[in-house]
Amino acid sequence: MRERLMAETRAALKAQDKPRLSALRLISAALQQADIAAKAPIPDGEIPALLQRMIKQRRESLAIYQQAGRKAQADQEAAEITVIEEFLPKQMSEVETQAAVAAAIKEVGAANLREMGKVMSALKERYAGRMDFAKASGWAKDLLK
Q1: Whole-angstrom Cα distance, residue 126 to residue 100?
Q2: Which residues contact 100 (CB under 8 A, 6 or more apart)?
Q3: Which of 37, 64, 119, 144 is most buried, with most CB under 10 Å away?
Q4: Is residue 145 pLDDT above 80, yes or no?
């Protein structure tokens, strides 16, 4: 992942693609901050979660800019989201997510809402960066009621 990020950054530099280069540098900076906080390079398995948090932040900013009528800033946030999403694994569809939630409930043996933490932990372990856990949580609650 890090090698790909460096290669993409070099390519953007050569192509003089300033918006893309800016977004790639944001990703690099976030990785560097995470490495410093962990006092060691974070494992590649944790990078998708970091990228998901970055996307979530940008979506929130995008909504605020759109409400405020600040088109230039909204466009910049949307462009950054697009670049960050390129580094995430393919997202699971709703049908795939629902099937994974049902399978995790069965596998963990969860019978009520008190055991939802076990289900979500199993899902996060297997599908980090590929699943919308907010939606998965809602479906798990519905199945465990």
Answers
A1: 10
A2: 92, 123, 126, 127, 131, 136
A3: 119
A4: no
Nearest in space to 31 (alpha carbons), one of 2, 52, 61: 2
Count CA atoms within 13 Å of residue 138 on its CB side: 6
State pLDDT tens for residues 74-85. Answer: 999 999 999 998
In angstroms, the CA 107 to CA 96 distance is 16
Tokens for 116?
Answer: 């939802």
Structure tokens at 69: 């009528």
DSSP 64-76: HHHHHT-HHHHHH
Tell me what pLDDT residue 77 has. 94
The two tokens of residue 134 are: 């907010």
Enumerate domains of the chain plus CATH numbers. 2-85 (1.10.1510.10), 94-144 (1.10.10)
